[in-house]
Design goal:
With 226 residues, the chain is α/β, with parallel strands linked by helices. Helices cover 20% and strands 29% of the residues. It contains 6 helices and 14 strands. A 7-stranded mixed beta sheet has the order 6-5-4-3-2-1-14, with helices on one face. α3 links the parallel β5 and β6. The longest helix is centred in the C-terminal third of the chain and has 11 residues. The chain is globular. It starts with a strand and ends with a strand.
Length: 226
């Protein structure tokens, strides 16, 4: 599976020829100024929650590509009101078989308000089970014992976890999360974008290695095979 990082918590994977984008926030991220959002294609856009640093490019990308937007019920109702009808509402605990594989929504402990003040529904994490690989995107979340349930539902090839601290888990809690979800390959996201979430990447990598885990920190714009 190819994984492309667009900065902050935004990334894309391609599964069965479908381009799936997560939490598009590129235009207003100074660290991602090398990325031309108008060149990004999407068949699906999965949104973990409604904060502006996760939906900044959502509407423009959805309308240009005609992608199906997937997220919490309240969030996709907001998307409809912005003039985009191609949506799929979900909520915590539910799963759905899409044309690329099955997605299960899981708990993310965070908050969720949309840029105009609209309530964004429950924050979500997503477990993707596909013929080309299985992975977990935690979204913005604290460490939670709910993560211990994930191995009951899926054997993960990799997981995408926030590591920036302050608003989400930091490095130390992400290491515990990796143990809970029984996954040794972690892609770190939600770090460095703002002053509150600057990290020492070398130190983070060392701490993961000391725990017997692999921390992947692709450069913005980089595509890796995972």
């Amino acid at each position: 599976m190819k994984f492309t990082y667009y900065g902050h918590s935004s990334f894309a994977v391609e599964v069965k020829g479908k381009k799936i984008v997560f939490d598009p926030f590129i235009t207003h991220n100074e660290l991602a100024r090398s990325i031309d959002v108008n060149r990004i294609e999407a068949d699906y856009i999965f949104v973990s929650h409604g904060h502006s640093d996760h939906v900044g490019d959502l509407m423009d990308l959805a309308k240009r590509t005609g992608a199906t937007v997937v997220g919490a019920f309240e969030l996709v109702e907001w998307v409809r009101k912005q003039g985009h009808e191609k949506v799929h509402p979900m909520n915590t605990g539910g799963k759905w078989a899409f044309d690329f594989g099955t997605v299960k929504c899981v708990v993310a402990h965070h908050s969720s308000g949309l840029p105009d003040g609209t309530y964004g529904g429950n924050p979500l994490g997503f477990i993707f089970t596909t013929d080309e690989g299985t992975f977990y995107f935690a979204g913005d979340t604290a460490l939670t014992f709910d993560m211990e349930l994930i191995p009951r539902w899926a054997k993960l090839d990799f997981a995408v976890l926030p590591i920036g601290d302050n608003f989400t888990m930091g490095v130390e809690d992400a290491i515990i999360a990796a143990e809970f979800i029984e996954c040794g390959r972690i892609v770190g996201v939600h770090y460095d974008t703002f002053g509150y979430i600057k990290i020492d990447k070398a130190d983070a990598t060392r701490k993961f290695e000391a725990a017997g885990l692999t921390l992947l920190l692709p450069a913005i714009g980089e595509t890796i095979d995972i």
